[in-house]
Write a structure and sequence with these properties.
Number of domains of chain A: 1
Low-confidence stretches of chain B: 21-27, 458-470, 486-490
Number of helices of chain A: 5
Radius of gyration of chain A: 15 Å
Order of helices and strands of chain A: EHEHEEHEHH
CATH class of the largest domain in chain B: Mainly Alpha
CATH class of chain A: Alpha Beta
Strand order of the largest sheet of chain A: 2-1-3-5-4
Helix content of chain A: 25-40%
Structural class of chain B: alpha+beta
Radius of gyration of chain B: 22 Å
CATH topology of the largest domain in chain B: Cytochrome-c3 Hydrogenase, chain B
Largest sheet of chain B: 6 strands, antiparallel
Largest sheet of chain A: 5 strands, mixed
CATH architecture of chain A: 3-Layer(aba) Sandwich
Oligomer: heterodimer
Structural class of chain A: alpha/beta
Number of strands of chain A: 5
Distance between the termini of chain B: 38 Å
Number of helices of chain B: 15
Number of strands of chain B: 17
């Protein structure tokens, strides 16, 4: 049994910031994949204690809205990085992996990030039409990931 | 109190330094410093872009939705907004006294929030400065370096925060967007299995919290003169206290003390907070400046949060934390009781109190009972106040006959502390930057004192790659003469200055 964690974050009431939580809701509704045990985790922001959600997993997928990614989404492996992302109350994915190493004194499991392009993040706004289309394509890509949930296969798709 | 250096007499002849945005602070804020030709500070201001979209966000929504809706205002302290709004809605449904189970479930939830928030701030945002010094190399001033130097401390930080989050998850039913509190009570009680799950790690949580208090107490013992004197000023304080004067983070009456520690008002019903607290605007800031009516707008500003609460209360109703309160108040003849950086010390005392409070509550059989909600005579106005991790949080609502929200007003902790943070910036600028060339370590001194207040600027948008720190120095003619930039990856660079 492969143990996968899907960790998505964002504020459901802040426009395209809801892409992460909406992705999670849709992913949870998909039929189970034989041989795959998926744990779904959602939060407002990535925080240090989320390193505990990586423990005991064979593979981890982070999902977030991104202003930096090109539309519709970017998919990449995450490397542990001492990138000093202490600039907000939230952590970067790489810094979270570094936190994992500090907390557990072992290498983290393979982690990939699916960064879905968002445009507007105002409170009370719904997800915009362009972001919704990006989400649709990201979910289609997720189904491809589920077809072969192993790090080597995901690595071949990274950079897409 | 003084507000000197808030406004320079002739700003047109001065150069301007902008710290925008401030790192390790949630949301958007910036500092501007006006310097004369000799680098002497003539004006120092903290600008915070206050979030004001809230009223529109809730207008027209049924009142019972509000406790859940407001959790989405802020990804940092959703539980605080949830509880303050719920208390306001208690008033609207006429629930003057909750059932013991409802009161204790909410208190348990609140203790979980206090514990996780204080742990995050101390271990991740404050400890790098405290352990390595304010002018240490920037590569060292972060939690990664803390972990390298003291892995046990970093691990405790993660697990303390995780425990607080687990209390929230178990109490509210979900990890985020939970809904424990409803108008008039709560919608669930603990099961024996949930209680036992939380009991499993509580002794470790209390012990680690004690160690955290001891750690910062030790830091103060080693460097008390420096830590106490860092941007020092005196202020008034405001917080809730229990009827017997005890620290109470969830409910009580408002108490204010002046700069000499004398009580200005006591046990004030927070439903009429505006009789004692008023807000004034200033043309240079988007954020309002609250003040105590009794002292007036010039002298009536005050501080809220851990330092205010520990100074204001008569005792803490859990023994380990109260012993630490006594040690804090008596330290060096009370020298730390007005210090900006004593916020960190008092924050850890409160974390210990939260851990003890959770332990007490988990032993209380009321948490397992099923008497959850009360109602009474309906009202059209509701006010809810709690002591959130960063300080006093006020939620005030009006509804119409159709039970829809027609007006909402929030005064959040960061707004209460607005003038105090400005004063802290001015004092640190005068102490450390006045007459010196502006460098990144010196600018970090400004950020250190702002971080002591743990301001949360109500912004839950967090898209990857944002929040660089950029410092501009602009001459009197508006030309950029220098720029210092710190990117999100921690890189500090000094790009060539460009003409304005």
């Amino acid at each position: 049994m492969t143990r996968l964690a899907v960790v998505a974050w964002g504020n459901p009431s802040r426009g395209d910031d809801a892409l992460g939580p909406q992705f999670l809701d849709a992913a949870q509704a998909l039929p189970p994949v034989p041989g795959l045990d998926v744990e779904f985790v959602t939060d407002f922001q990535l925080q240090p204690e989320h390193c505990t959600d990586l423990a005991g997993r064979d593979l981890v997928l982070f999902v977030d809205a991104s202003l930096r990614a090109a539309a519709p989404f970017a998919f990449d492996a995450v490397a542990s990085s001492r990138d000093h992302t202490f600039t907000t109350h939230g952590l970067s994915p790489g810094a979270l992996l570094a936190t994992y190493v500090d907390a557990y004194e072992e290498p983290p499991p393979p982690v990939f990030v699916l960064a879905i392009r968002g445009e507007r993040f105002e409170l009370g706004e719904p997800v915009g039409a362009a972001a919704a289309e990006n989400l649709r394509q990201a979910l289609a890509f997720y189904r491809r990931l589920l077809a072969e949930p192993v790090a080597a296969a995901w690595q071949r798709l990274a950079g897409s | 109190m003084t507000i000197a250096y808030e406004t320079a007499a002739h700003p047109e002849n001065l150069r301007r330094v902008v710290i925008d945005p401030i790192s390790r602070v949630e949301g958007h804020g910036k500092v501007t410093l006006l310097l004369d030709a000799d680098n002497r500070i003539q004006q120092a201001r903290l600008h915070i872009v206050e979030f004001r979209g809230f009223e529109k966000f809730v207008q027209g929504r049924p009142y019972w939705e509000v406790p859940v809706l407001v959790q989405r205002l802020c990804g940092i302290c959703p539980v605080s907004h949830h509880l303050a709004a719920s208390k306001a809605m208690d008033m609207i449904v006429g629930a003057t006294e909750l059932t013991p189970t409802a009161d204790k479930m909410r208190r348990l939830l609140h203790f979980g929030q206090i514990l996780q928030s204080h742990a995050l701030h101390f271990f991740y945002l404050a400890s790098p400065d405290l352990l390595f010094g304010f002018d240490a190399d920037i590569a060292q001033r972060n939690i990664v370096a803390v972990a390298a130097a003291n892995p046990q401390l970093a691990r405790q930080g993660v697990l303390l925060r995780k425990y607080g989050q687990e209390v929230i998850r178990v109490t509210s039913g979900k990890r985020v967007h939970g809904s424990c509190a409803v108008p008039g009570g709560v919608n669930k009680h603990l099961t024996p299995e949930e209680r036992d799950y939380l009991l499993a790690d509580i002794e470790r949580t209390v012990a680690w919290s004690q160690e955290a208090v001891a750690l910062i107490r030790g830091m103060y013992s080693e460097r008390s003169e420096f830590l106490n004197g860092f941007g020092f000023f005196r202020s008034a304080y405001v917080s809730l206290v229990r009827g017997d004067g005890a620290l109470d983070l969830y409910h009580g009456g408002l108490r204010a003390r002046n700069t000499r520690g004398e009580v200005i008002f006591d046990h004030v019903d927070y439903a009429s907070y505006w009789d004692h607290i008023f807000e004034v605007t200033k043309p240079w800031s988007y954020m309002k400046f609250p003040y105590l009516r009794a002292l007036g707008p010039e002298d009536g500003w005050y501080r809220v949060g851990p330092l205010a609460r520990i100074n204001n209360c008569d005792f803490i109703p859990t023994p380990l934390a109260d012993a630490e309160r006594i040690a804090f108040r008596g330290f060096d003849n009370g020298s730390a009781t007005h210090a900006n950086l004593a916020y960190h010390w008092t924050r850890m005392i409160e974390m210990l109190h939260a851990a003890e409070g959770i332990r007490e509550l988990l032993a209380d059989p009321d948490l397992l009972k099923n008497d959850l909600v009360v109602t009474g005579t309906r009202a059209l106005r509701g006010v809810g106040v709690i002591e959130a991790p960063r300080g006093t949080l006020i939620h005030h609502y009006r509804i119409n006959e159709d039970e829809q929200i027609v007006r909402a007003n929030l005064i959040v902790s960061t707004t209460h502390n607005n003038e105090a943070m400005n004063e802290a910036v001015r004092q640190v600028a005068l102490q450390y930057l006045d007459g010196n060339e502006v460098t990144e370590p010196l600018l970090n001194h400004i950020e250190v004192v702002i971080r002591a207040y743990d301001p949360c600027l109500s912004c839950a948008t967090h898209a990857l790659g944002q929040m660089p720190l950029e410092v501009e120095i602009v001459d009197a003619a508006g030309a950029q003469v220098d720029v210092l930039r710190r990117d999100a990856d921690g890189t500090v660079s000094r790009p060539d200055a460009q003409p304005a």
